[in-house]
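Chapter review. Work through the record for Protein of unassigned function before attempting the end-of-chapter questions.
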Amino acid sequence: MQVRRHADRVALALMEAVEWFDWGRWQVEVYDPKGRPVWLRAFQDVDIDVDLKAA
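Structure tokens for Protein of unassigned function:
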């Protein structure tokens, strides 16, 4: 799923930029153009094997 992979990359990029922060209560929320939620991903559930450079 492309949305899930993108959400994981966004979360990982932020976690790599600020490694010392407690990410336990953070999440990525993805909405469609009409503002409807389409994906919710807790930072702690992010797939750490996601390739950050992949499209």
